[in-house]
Amino acid sequence: MDDRVHPEVRRTATEIDTMEIRGAATIADAAARALRTQATESDAADAEAFRGELRAAARTLYETRPTAVSLPNALRYVLRGMSSTTVEGARQNVVESADEFCARLERAQADLGEVGANRLRDGDTIMTHCHSTDALACVEAAVEQGKHIEAVVKETRPRNQGHITAKRLDELGVPVTLIVDSAARRYLNDVDHVLVGADAVAADGSVINKIGTSGLAVNARDRGTPIMVAAQTLKLHPGTMTGHTVDIEMRDTAEVIDDETLAELGNPTVKNPAFDVTPPRYVDAIVTERGQFPPESIVILMRELFGEGTSEPWVEP
């Protein structure tokens, strides 16, 4: 690892890689704060050396989750204003950008929650998949409006992120029914909405989220249950406007099965994809802090926010 990278950046990168830091918004916030630390602690002799340090730190963070979207969007935001020709000026650029990004991130989730809560009625039951702070923000806002909401929560194997969702919903006073993933179709007739988050949203409105989301969406559409995706704009994947595809991360097989059990089964090949892609035809609405959008219209918002393309400021010039 590059010895110019601050230990706090390396620690953050490790925690993102091992999923101690998880969730798109949490990852983005942690990355921005890590770059801020790199900037404030740098003893670079000149502005070019300073920019080189920041690029190295950003690469260290980026390489932990190269298929994520919120992470590079956070890195772009913090690094894009690093224009000063002096170390102190560039340092101030980074600190101000990081502080502004984190402040906007905090407001964005609250604003998104208010938008999403408008789709939830008093007495509604939702079904969730994985753990999404954006999805929970919608429920929290609805509860604060005085609405009674109940939830059917999928456990979400192999890492059981649904347990985190169940705990948080319980803290909000929402009655929870926890189900095994394979029971989702059985309980779809008992819910009013499927409410999920997103790791990324493509320009055509496709939703990249925790593996199992696509199958749930297909079953929900068959049952006539509307599907709402809660996703801050930092989840939008601007690269897909210029033809880039979204890579699906493959996680360690140890998350699924241990070596001893694997050997007992004859060492079959094990696949552990982290995400899948839900086509836009299975999604009713994408809720963001900027309002709600039909999935096919999300590209309009994407162009407004990012223009027609993106840069990679962590790459050496």
TrEMBL record:
Domain of life: Archaea
Positions of substrate binding: R22, G23, A24, A25, R65, N209, K210, K235
GO BP, sorted A to Z: L-methionine salvage from methylthioadenosine; pentose catabolic process
InterPro entries the record matches: IF-2B-related, IF_2B-like_C, Initiation_fac_2B_a/b/d, M1Pi_N, NagB/RpiA_transferase-like, R15Pi
Annotated catalysed reactions: alpha-D-ribose 1,5-bisphosphate = D-ribulose 1,5-bisphosphate
SUPFAM superfamilies (UniProt xref): NagB/RpiA/CoA transferase-like
Record-annotated active site: C130, D199
Top EC group: isomerase
Pfam family, one: IF-2B
Known EC number: 5.3.1.29
Keywords of this entry: Carbohydrate metabolism, Isomerase
GO MF annotations in UniProt: ribose 1,5-bisphosphate isomerase activity; S-methyl-5-thioribose-1-phosphate isomerase activity
Note: Reaction proceeds via a cis-phosphoenolate intermediate.
Main function: Catalyzes the isomerization of ribose 1,5-bisphosphate (R15P) to ribulose 1,5-bisphosphate (RuBP).
Family, per entry: Belongs to the eIF-2B alpha/beta/delta subunits family. R15P isomerase subfamily.
Name of the featured protein: Ribose 1,5-bisphosphate isomerase
Species classification: Archaea, Methanobacteriati, Methanobacteriota, Stenosarchaea group, Halobacteria
